[in-house]
């Protein structure tokens, strides 16, 4: 049946409720004439009268006899490909709506629109269909003119926005009609297909191995006369094309006309969406795993903080127990050192006390509760000064290298604690190289920082060995307190914990990198100091210590054993000691007019801390020298920053030097 139509109206078939009326009114409001149809038969009848596009709901054709509609679609003129908009409830793609394949086969030029949708979406799709139909009308008019005038044909051919070509089949080496040549192509051909100057070229010259597929597709159109519409990738150029092909009459011309456009961007978007859906579950799983990892890290941090608080408290009590033991042994050794047996026993006991003191220092280091005396230090000079000590500690089988980047700024550190940390790391490295190896100490400016370290200026001190390395489990637990891979009695498991705690207390970070058989790298990130690097603090000489006159000392400590041991040491030095068990009693003594040259006070005491005792005492006696002894140096920020401190446990010589230092610096 031959039809001629110039209608630009929309036909709507939606049998449920007022769907058709509402949809039609949407188009009318948008300036598109629309008509609601009550049945499929009415729709076909109106199509005979003319239409720009048809809107059909899925339920309208789900169970209907579609043969009349299919026959109408098949009988369209060659220029006509009526656009259909199919309103679905489960998506338009073949993946989500199996029925879409049947609808696609019947309707041909169909756009799927999933409900619910915004009215503007329906109007937008409708306008797009109208524009497509208008182009078909234009093609129809120009094709009509083509029969009348070659010039009109050429104008149409060249002005199409879509790529357009005419191919002609011939018998080739592969059999009858096994090849074709491009006899005409419009300018848009190159833009859409990506191949220039195709007129006169054979398909096998253009696309090589994929030629057979294109030959078979178009030869079928030529032989059957049935037009086709399909999508296919032109592998030669990577373009995805949407194509329509029909035979050029009469068949004896052996020609097929092809109209196509580049849909590469659309296909890529569809593939990206498909990939997104495919990977969504994996991304959700990864996100859950990341959250669980963060939760585990938080739990680990909370566990370490709890252990830190526990060890800090234990260290305080342990120091108070060690102080009278150490001082008593020290006094016994001084008084009875002439007896070899007594000297040997006292020396062994003092060595054990020193080991216990070191253990407590490591506990405090891990707990970040140790007292630090930070100042600007040249790390390269500090490490170089440790060369002989490190070399003797690691032994002759270990080759030692020290590499320092020139011009490094000073770091803000406690040099004594840092020396202990570096020596600890070097000894660990030695133990990891039982057969010998290379130990390298590097000092430089890091290019990158650990993720949990705030932005700022840092100097990095690295200890690198060529030892056995650590597996993931050992590396993960390496800084846990009391965790050790050494034999029982060969280590406390606090060395790396102390280094980790020291780095954190200094405002830096400590990281470990290791793999089995590839050695270990320990990195200390230390903050850059604003001041110029300073030399180590002054130490009083024996002559200066002996020159100190006998003093009247007020000693305050709530622990009777610690107070008695300290008083004995002071009296053994020749000083007069007044003992008090609380800050309030000490202040009362001062108010009573006691002549005091020096106040020595414990820091952590009930009701009144040592810092408060010192402040009250100086208010009564301005300029009074004060020495604070403490077994737990968790002073609040800015609390008594000018008070010299003596950590517990201490020996006779430590106390003597601190008193001498105090009176030397105070005049």
TrEMBL record:
Listed PROSITE patterns: HIS_KIN, RESPONSE_REGULATORY
Entry EC no(s): 2.7.13.3
Single annotated GO MF: ATP binding
Positions of the Response regulatory domain: 552-663
Reactions listed under catalytic activity: ATP + protein L-histidine = ADP + protein N-phospho-L-histidine
InterPro entries attached to this UniProt entry: CheY-like_superfamily, HATPase_C_sf, HATPase_dom, His_kinase_dom, HisK_dim/P_dom, HisK_dim/P_sf, PAS-like_dom_sf, PAS_4
Domain Histidine kinase: 313-530
A Pfam entry, by short name: Response_reg
Post-translational modification 4-aspartylphosphate, affected residues: 602
Coiled coil: 277-304
Domain of life: Bacteria
Alphabetical keyword list: ATP-binding, Coiled coil, Nucleotide-binding, Phosphoprotein
UniProt protein name: histidine kinase
Organism this protein belongs to: Sphingoaurantiacus capsulatus
